[in-house]
Hints:
Distance between the termini: 65 Å
Strand content: 15-25%
Helix content: 25-40%
Largest sheet: 9 strands, antiparallel
Number of domains: 2
Number of strands: 18
Number of helices: 13
Structural class: alpha+beta
Amino acid sequence: MSAGIAEREAQVAIVPLDLIQLEDVGAGAANVDAWLQDISGGVVSLERIKNAAGFLPVVGNVMALVDALNDIVRLATSEKRDPLDWVSLGINLIGVLPTPPTMAAARMSLRPTLFLVRQEMRQAGKMVLGDSLIEVLIGHLNADIVGTLDDFVTQAQGKLPGILEDAGKLGEDVLFEIAAGLEQLVDPKLNAKADLLEAEQLVQAAGDQWAYDPKAAISNIFVAAADLCIAAGKGAVNGAVENFVPESVKKEIGRQAKLLRAMVPELRTRMTGLADPGVQNSIGSLLLTLGDAVVSWRSRNGHGQAFNIKPGVVNQARRQGGEGKLETVGFEKPAKARPNKRKNCTCPCPCECACGSTARSISFAMGSESVSHTDFSLPGPFPIEWTRTYCSSLDAFDDDLIGARWITPFTTRFDLVGDGLVFHDFDGRSHEFPLPKVRLFHFNAIENLTVIRLSKDRLVLMRGLEHRETYVRRGQRFVLINKVLPNGAGVMLHYEHRHGGGRCSPSW
């Protein structure tokens, strides 16, 4: 694959299924909504077209559905359509084909498998797949399917022409429904024939579409996309269309509808061609490369078996979060905070950067700068290390006593923000918590922090089982007054009001 083609290719993320967030998929739905509004001068949105377009059922994989719609947007708006965008559309349509549940699980598993193989080939720059990829795919298939990886590949190769033919038909239906929905929303005659109230009642049966279930069916793809967009907080709802739509808008919408219908013959031809293993970057070639890699993996691993079944017993596939199941999303929400540098550090240097920042402490996630300086250390039953940390994004500490945006392990605090809490930790990172009711708690599993509300004005923070910190309320803040170790050793802090402005400073 040439470097130029690789740069133009749409980027996707292949991640564990249980780590995909609603906001990630909602961002993809919002992109489709933005395209609809752009081509219609704001007249058409996902919220409106879901009632005007027909009912087109697909399998219960919202992630594949949203990515397929975005592939169509990309193809529809490209002056010169990239062949790799057709490959992406074919893979995504495979993930949403309405089939019997026994086949749907396999097709949903095939989508991330194909994207992962394609990504590995692009990054390696050669037609070779490593052993680590094969192991990842074994774990991925083990979550849903009983059988060998090579058997899975062989069956997929045999069924691929028929699968892609079905994918082409589904893609054709999607294009026709979008075009019809665009026209109906601006044509008074067509609108008069549509009983939108009845449509509303029918689509409500679709229920919550934020799901990943091969046994479920999404009855209307546009309802799913619109509801997902709104649920993710993207606000994909525009107001009611004015009774009078300018002729210029009607003309442009009609032009866009014709362009979508004109894509149909090419879509069907492209989908059929993707089954040919002799065509570079086709789905057929991806499966061929994967099949060869499995054979090579077997030869290198002796008795190692690329399968997940045990002989002589009844086998059953079970899917649990975190057990290897992968999925693909075309959009990811922006980072909200810096990573915890004390976790998952694989960097050989002593900086504990967890490869989440540059050598000069600039966070890759947020672009913020963070530096730490240790003034002194005191040994003893309660060892004290007075380390000051500066974080450029810690604006809540602009007026702090030890300097703007500096924090220490003894100046951490909770701020009351709205109905919740924001905890500012000693490493300069901030974490949001709900405000627990009295005698209840909230546990942050990622940071291993537990907030317990002892009384109206007193909180306890547990750092795992190692540290217990007590905070008392001072206005709109809960300030630290006590730190205790499991051995009973601890330190007390006393806060005094100074300067007549209600500011508190700690003293020992």
